[in-house]
Design goal:
Elements lengths: L10 E2 L1 H10 L3 E7 L2 E7 L2 E3 L2 E6 L4 H8 L2 E14 L3 E16 L3 H15 L7 H8 L4 E6 L2 E7 L3
Antiparallel strand pairs: 1-9, 2-3, 2-6, 4-5, 5-8, 6-7, 7-8, 7-9
């Protein structure tokens, strides 16, 4: 089955995977474009088992998401390349499988954008209200409600 982890000895619990997701800086959003895969690095924020993203109102990913809402989002947490009788990397990772949902409610959009700004620019939150007034109408917000979350870890990092 495509959502099963082959190396069960490396599988981590839902809570551990959620923690990897919560602490990751960036991730990769993967979409299905007909017969092709489309993957793009994204900034994101999380609240209550919902992963929020933002983008422009138009572009390749928006076109794809309007056609097919199936998606996965993957992150890599801590890593440590190591030589221990062989070359390897200790790591932790998490992946979500879900559907994309566009956020149309302005209050939820503002909350999502606030979460993103707090994550990436916490020292500049005094500028948030002015930025929202200027850009809310031209900013797209979409989310993934976590339906399936899996994680893996190799090594003690």
């Amino acid at each position: 089955m495509r959502n099963e982890i082959r190396r069960k000895d490396r599988e981590i619990s839902y809570d551990e995977a959620y923690n990897v997701l919560l602490n990751a800086e960036y991730g990769t959003l993967s979409l299905v474009d007909g017969d092709f895969a489309y993957a793009i690095p994204m900034s994101f924020a999380i609240k209550d088992n919902v992963v929020y993203f933002h983008s422009a109102m138009e572009g390749s990913k928006i076109t794809i998401m309007n056609t097919n809402q199936n998606a996965c989002f993957s992150v890599v947490g801590k890593t440590m390349p190591i030589y221990n009788k062989q070359f390897t990397t200790y790591y932790e990772s998490a992946i979500i499988h879900s559907k994309i949902v566009f956020v149309n409610d302005d209050d939820e959009k503002i909350e999502a954008l606030r979460l993103l700004c707090q994550k990436y620019l916490p020292n500049d939150m005094d500028k948030f209200e002015a930025a929202i007034k200027m850009s809310l109408s031209r900013t797209n917000v979409f989310k993934m409600n976590i339906e399936l979350l899996k994680g893996k870890r190799k090594g003690n990092i």
